[in-house]
Amino acid sequence: MVRETLVRGGRAITDNPPPGPFRRSFWRSPIRGPWLTAVLGSVLLVGITILFVTGLASYAAYNPDLGGNDLTPAKGLLGFYLFDWPTEPYWLYRLNQGVHVTLGIVLVPVLLAKLWSVVPKLFAWPPARSPAQLLERLSLLLLVGGAIFEFATGIVNIQYWYEPLPGSFYGLHFYGAWVFIGAFVVHVGIRFPRMVAALRSRSLRAELRVDTAATRPEPPDSHGLVASDPAQPTMSRRGALALVGGGSLTLFVMTAGQSIGGPLRSTALLAPRGQVLSEGPNGFQVNKTAFAAGVIGPQTGPSWQLELNGPGEPVQFGRDELLAMPQHAARLPIACVEGWSTGNQSWSGIRLADLARLAGLPGASSVLVESVQVGSAFASTSLRRNQILDPQSLLALRVNGVDLSLDHGFPVRVIVPANPGVHNTKWVGRMSFEA
Amino acid sequence: MSADNRAPLGFRWYGANPLHLLALIGCFALAGYAGLRLFDARPLGVAVWLFGAVIIHDLMLFPLYALADRSVQGVLRHRPAAMPVVPWINYLRVPVLLSGLLLLVYFPLILGLPQGYPVITGLPLEGYFERWLLVTGVLFAASALAFALRLRRHLRTAGRAAP
User: Fold this and answer.
1) Cβ–Cβ contacts within 10 Å for residue A146, how many?
2) Which of A13, A115, A270, A321 could join B106 in a cystine, given CB atoms 3.0 to 4.6 angstroms apart?
3) Reported ipTM
4) pLDDT at position A5, please?
5) In which domain, by residue range, is A256 found?
6) Residue A287 belongs to a domain
């Protein structure tokens, strides 16, 4: 009896949605439908999977199990996939971050189009027909909220607009990704069959030959996407996909140059690192200037010394003494978590492995590198054994044939292949090798 | 829901099969585990970012766009009868949307909001607004050119049809 009343009550609500967007007749686009949604969804399925994997790799690149490297120390089970970050190939981090950031930006119009394509479902009436649907809609809140949250925090961070962020970017973007990904996996799991069926319902190649005049709505569907009272088409499906693709292409052209570098850098007209810093051997992009890092006083003056700690007494070296040691060369890029990078620069300096030997610990398992800079989360970082032992890992004194500029870390800086930019510590004051 | 039919007897109340429920519980458990850490920062601020973004997009950006699109089509429909009729709305939509997209992604730099930018990077913050205007201008000019070509083609065909 109760059940019957509920059902009847449910029908009454179904039959009489409130006016406006809750009525199907409100949504009139003739191109909205399962096929268009499925095309956009399949692009996001591939794209977001790549974003997630490169995001996890980016986190692993910080070697968060070492010393104070972890910026999200409460991660618990969310760090289960961590592994020792390799030093080969040397461009690994550059590629990973370039893909993560550029792809994220390029996917913005696809995400917006996908949300547009399903917006009638936001106003579905009644709001839920069953507990299953209620739970699913709650998970969609995590899906859409999480997606916009991840895109927004990433986009704001690469432009150095930290003020509106409600916490440290690393924690927000990392935990936000985990909140999002569960809802994403469930959404894909539930909708995958429907997506495949919709993709099979018409051929992409055939659809790309249909102009606006010949565009007809998709056949009525049971999911409420196809308009019940479609308007005259003003754009074909081909046109809509071209518009989304054009948006992605425009963003790509405006962005990718900052990760490709060389003469293409200045094509990235709107990207944060699309501008050429200056000419000359030290003219490549600076991660954080000496002024911003507070390295403006005498810390790096003539009295500067490098302190090496090992099992014995600490030993100190001035810059001239370091220059007198065997110098080695490495051609390596600077690659930042923000996605931009430089081309390969010719560094020269002392191998980290040689310094480990000087400190009396040739088999050191890690080294804590401390900068003379103050008040930064990256003033000290730890490197792992494989990073110490790589013959290309240097404590660099010179770059491109000249002394390092102050902005690039004078008197000495770390440069390690495939290492995140902020872990190539500048203005190094102390290195403590640990067994 | 198609899943309804596959729900075993005794599980009909739920509205889908039990796997559906298990997957969603897993999703909420993961979100809860990560969410506790996420909200550890500034809870209200995080909530505003997480759910405010949905509200801004779904209930503000989207209606604004739809309203603008309909208004423009409504207003510009009333043109002198002598003008040739060529579908024109997309020649306006495309540059507006592309320029708006660039603004949406790069508005912090375009509007000069990140005060720390010049100090951190050593690069000037000036110029982003001008470059965005320049790209916008190029997009509109290209669209106008495409429309002019389309119009000319239309006039030629119309001229041939009625000598």
Assistant:
1) 27
2) A270
3) 0.92
4) 42
5) 16-266
6) no
